[in-house]
Design goal:
The complex is a heterodimer of chains A (about 110) and B (about 120). Chain A is mostly beta strands. Chain A contains no helices and eleven strands. In chain A, a hairpin with a 6-residue loop joins strand 5 and strand 6. Chain B is globular. Helices cover about 0% and strands about 50% of the residues of chain B. The chains are: A mainly beta (about 110), B mainly beta (about 120).
């Protein structure tokens, strides 16, 4: 069965500090991994996907198949990064045509 | 706003009543998904459509739940004989099957409260 675990429900850092949001997954195969973000009073939106190897808003995430992890990192957190972050797992095959399996989410608070 | 829309945004109903939610996807998207999110949890997959065909249903979708997408455009999710455990945020998302990696675009959700 596929499963996504985000061990931290809450994460607080100060502005300018590095931040790492942890995500571990369980899947027998080569899944697609995503990070979604939900800012206050906004809808859920895609932040980044592992296949693109991109940096969005200063965030990066590396897929570590050996550790089955997909941690989200940013070297210098900003107050506007405060939000709920969800790690999600999708089916393999190069398309996100099927269901996403989400973790429980991590609330990130960046203090001034 | 050309994003995914959902109606109503909030619904309060009494236990035992039937409720129906509507989702309008982004117009060129042929895939549509329903998720349910309870407090403190991430969204959980319920079902998905490609055009008008319902291709996958979660075990979470009991026989009191039914979803349709009759013309391959908007979708409805009906819950019959609501129970207090049905109280949750119901999210709709859509995506396109064209191209490679595609992202799912989410609507604002319908918050259901069963009293």
């Amino acid at each position: 069965a596929q499963r996504v675990t985000q061990p931290e429900k809450l994460l607080s850092v100060f502005k300018g500090a590095p931040v790492e949001l942890k995500c571990n997954y369980s899947y027998s195969g080569s899944p697609e991994l995503f990070w979604y973000v939900q800012y206050s009073r906004q809808r859920l939106q895609l932040l980044l996907r592992h296949i693109s190897r991109e940096s969005i808003k200063g965030f990066t995430a590396d897929l570590n198949k050996g550790e089955t992890s997909f941690h989200l990192k940013k070297p210098f957190a900003q107050e506007e990064d405060s939000a709920m972050y969800y790690c999600a797992l999708g089916p393999p095959g190069g398309t996100s045509y099927g269901k996403l399996t989400f973790g429980q989410g991590t609330i990130l608070t960046v203090h001034p | 706003d050309t994003g995914v829309s959902q109606d109503p945004r909030h619904k309060i109903t009494k236990r035992g009543q039937n409720v129906t939610f509507r989702c309008d996807p982004i117009s060129e998207h042929n895939r549509l998904y329903w998720y349910r999110q309870t407090l403190g949890q991430g969204p959980e997959f319920l079902t998905y459509f490609q055009n008008e065909a319902q291709l996958e249903k979660s075990r979470l979708l009991s026989d009191r739940f039914s979803a349709e997408r009759p013309k391959g455009s908007f979708s409805t999710l009906e819950i019959q004989r609501t129970e207090q455990g049905d109280s949750a945020m119901y999210l709709c998302a859509s995506s396109s099957s064209a191209g490679g990696i595609v992202e799912q675009y989410f609507g604002p959700g319908t918050r259901l409260t069963v009293t």
